[in-house]
Design a protein that fits this description.
With 206 residues, this protein is an all-alpha fold. 77% of the residues lie in helices and 0% in strands. The chain has helices at residues 10-32, 38-53, 60-70, 72-97, 102-131, 136-149, 151-170, 179-197. Helix 7 (151-170) packs antiparallel against helix 8 (179-197).
Length: 206
């Protein structure tokens, strides 16, 4: 019975992280509503979840807004660019899927390959924005190289994100409430290992 009220009890630790993930999901949604701020909002989300996944407890809300402010300038252009490229590729996939014949098939497969590269790079982009003090060109190159070099981990992160949102959409709707923060937290567990390998885990502290 004593262990039940111990704050180090695994149940309470899990519940605490779940609450943090719920708060982070809400903060991300709130700060991403203008759309142009989706970049710094995502960078702030990953900054906090990378710490959370590494058991570096802190003030979730305060850390999020501090990271949001510090990543505002590099995050805005990268966020807008990511959204525009995503919309462009999505429209192309739809249009090319409507074209019959070999030309349509070639264009569709070409766009699918580009979309795959886009998604793979996107997985690393904003965690690197949160952790690295460098210009956006170097961040893009690093994100692309890491996505290819760690293809297995990259694929796992994409699959877990798709599965989590699929569970929320088709099985258990309440999961959608924590889907954003939950995805970032799962990714952060993997990213901490990879960033440590590249000596990036402490390269940018807010």
């Amino acid at each position: 019975m004593k262990n039940l009220f111990n704050i180090d009890n695994p149940v309470w630790v899990f519940m605490g992280k779940l609450v943090d993930i719920l708060i982070l999901s809400s903060l991300w949604l709130l700060c991403s509503l203008p759309v142009v701020t989706i970049g710094p909002s995502t960078a702030a989300l990953y900054y906090v979840t990378l710490k959370l996944a590494n058991n570096e407890e802190g003030y979730t809300v305060r850390s999020f807004f501090r990271a949001f402010k510090d990543n505002l300038m590099p995050g805005i252009p990268l966020g807008i660019g990511a959204v525009l490229v995503g919309v462009f590729l999505g429209c192309d996939l739809y249009l090319y899927s409507q074209i019959d014949g070999k030309v349509g098939i070639v264009l569709l497969w070409g766009t699918l390959i580009l979309t795959s590269v886009y998604l793979m790079t996107l997985v690393y982009l904003f965690p690197l924005v949160a952790r690295c003090d460098t210009d956006w060109k170097h961040i893009l190159v690093m994100a692309f190289v890491m996505s290819i070099k760690n293809f297995g981990w990259t694929l796992l992160m994409i699959v877990t994100a798709v599965c989590l949102f699929a569970i929320g959409l088709f099985v258990m709707a309440p999961v959608l409430v924590i889907a954003i923060g939950g995805t970032a937290y799962i990714h952060a567990k993997i990213l901490n290992l990879l960033l440590r390998e590249y000596k990036l885990e402490l390269s940018k502290e807010q």
